[in-house]
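Summary for the lay section of the report: proteins are chains of building blocks that fold into shapes. Here we show the chain for EAL domain-containing protein and then a coded description of the shape we predicted for it.
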Amino acid sequence: MWSGRRHRTRRTYREQFERSAVPQAVCDGRARLVAVNAALARLLGRRAAVLTGRPVSELSHPTDPGDADVALARLLAGEVTTTQAERILEGPGGRPLPTLASVTALTDGASVVYQDLSRLRATQLEASRLEEELRDAALHDALTGLANRALLFDRLGHALTRETTSTAVLVVDLDHFRGINDERGNAIGDEVLVAVADRLRAAVRPSDTIGRLGGDEFVVVCEDADPAAGQEIAHRVLAALGPAVPTTAGSVRVGASIGVAVTPTAVGGSLLRHAETATYAAKAAGRGRVQLFDAGVAELARQRFELGVELARAVEADELHLHYQPIIDLGTGAVVGAEALARWDHPRLGPVPPDRFVAVAEAEGLTAALDRWVVCRALGEAARLLPPTAYVAVNLSARTLTDGQLRDWIRDAAGRAGLPPERVVLEVTESATMADPHTSARVLEDLCGNGFRIAIDDFGTGHSSLAYLRRLPVALLKVDRSFVAELTTDPGARAITASVVDLARTIGLTVVAEGVETVEQRAVLQALGATSGQGWLWSRAVAPAEAGDTFSRRYDV
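The coded shape description reads as follows.
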């Protein structure tokens, strides 16, 4: 029984040996070939039967150094049980074939397996290249090739260990980049990002590290840079981003707001946060500029944060209130509507200017909550304060326009107040609609379909095109007060206002002029064909207690 099993096992091994795609041979104790498989015979270009019985050394090319013969002799002498050595075999036509011979001792000889060294080395080279690519991909942004967050923090940490030098960090945040993505598409947006990366490389020093944190935010780590050097590099970056960027869909302009922070600071994370804080300050100051982080910026950031916490509490506790400014028909002097304006009397600071707490709401992500409070309060109060035919206008921020429940809660608020949707005007700025144009258009169409009217506020100061305006369901255009203020002194302001009025008349919109303060401004607006206005010429914004007389009277025309 046992001899039969051994016979079957030997037959199985023999079949595996013959069918193997790996070149193999078996030699006896005198280093003579007793078996050569088909793969080795093909590699050498000779028949296995011719090779059998010959010394293993006869497989070698004349240039073989003989290391494999020495290794085989040691194994057959019993010094080792396995060994490896390079052997140059002689292939067809006398061609040298570098191989790695792996030898294993058998009971009465040895087994030899040959690996093609050229292929093995190519495989190792490819594996090394692939490993390098994977390591590079793990540390670089796939789109721009710039350093990613991991590599940035590594470089920043290294820079901060050099206590004898200062390090500057620049946070470069592109201005209005989302509008490029939405208007031109993500592919064009990617082209812009790649071009920005190239311009950053050209603007900074060779020793600086540039990275992309994601989206349209870039970071530059500058070793050996004091505040002056950091700002100088930032201004070079700003200048480099000034010219229009050519893309496959035409040229686009992209600016940036840049924050700069310079050591000493405790850890890299706080240095980056300081630079981001300076970037927010640059944006708040009007965008397209460089802001160095200093004690003043830090104090403003602290105050903004604290005020944001108190504002959130005030909104939740219903501690704000509304004032209303009437909107007057320029032809009849009748009140046709009123704009609801939020007011906040802080228990410690007193009245907080609306511009200040609205800016805080935007910076701290509170605009959606503030908008919802204003809408619900304004619709409830307008039903009892305004004349039966007058509308109430409320402002909606860009963040609110992305609220998936917007239509439902505005409709519910109007229903609870008993106010027909046509008496509700929802004001959005050009900039708000451009933050996400496609979503804005869809949301505004939805609101318009439910009977609410849409107004574009501060028209002429934003970034939307007239072609885009025609795609929005707009009922009113509000001319910005900056144009109205110069109507009687600046021909340019008058020309712009005339163009807006003509545009509105052409596409069937109502024009409301903001900030009217003099009878001369009113006369020019009437002559241009504007239909209504609001401003201190007629009334300031008043509290609900004063609304009765303000809204019931007819003003002189």
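Put simply, here is one thing we learned. The radius of gyration is 39 Å.
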